[in-house]
Amino acid sequence: MRNIFDSHAHYEDAIFGEDCWPVLDGLQRQGVSRVLNCCSDMGVVPRVLEIARRYDFVWASVGVHPHWTPETPADYLDGLRRAAQDPKVVAIGEIGLDYFWDDPKDLQMRIFCEQMELARELGLPVIIHDRDAHQDTYQVLERYRLPGVVHRFSGDLDGLRRVLDLGMYVSFGGDITHPQYRDMPLKAIEHTPFERILLETDAPYATPYAQGQRRCDSSMLPEVVEVIAGIKKISCQELCDITYQNACRAYHIPK
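Now predict its structure.
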């Protein structure tokens, strides 16, 4: 397969460390044409920018993941605003809500909404994290009505309809290859129009099932492609080409 666009990865993550460089060096030889390297907290913004600047095929987002909201400095919006001036930054994210852990919900909501306001100010799409917080997340998305991506979509079909009605994209990764997670994501894939679906790894997380406990990277996306292409009844290369075009459109990256 070629023309693969990993729409959501974290090569700045400490799990990669300095090993991110040899991994990234080899991706294009493995059919990965582009990567969106997504930010999780203010502490890794410099690393996110460094990676995107080093590789022509890597783009970046900047934002604060809900899990890191308790550690977010008071002036974080100024830092994000400055970072977003870099020409390789194409989105605000990942941002959103995560009710799986015990991070304060009111703080998560405030920082989520502040970053939605920032994205609107800057005219950038958003990358949304939604874990066990579907209804609250959808309500925020419907309030702001910004373009963007709900990554690792895990909602039901009504939630999918609400997201698609907003003109947003949904992405799917290695979760869909795991038998214990497959039921609802596979239904969501079946009901997602071709023009709104993206591929992602969430590397170094969400390793495809066949890879066992290995650290995930973008070269593992063909396993995700095979599952989605089978559901959509098209060839794997057709799916790669479609999702490549979709990701370029979602992030306003020249094709």
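The mean pLDDT is 96.
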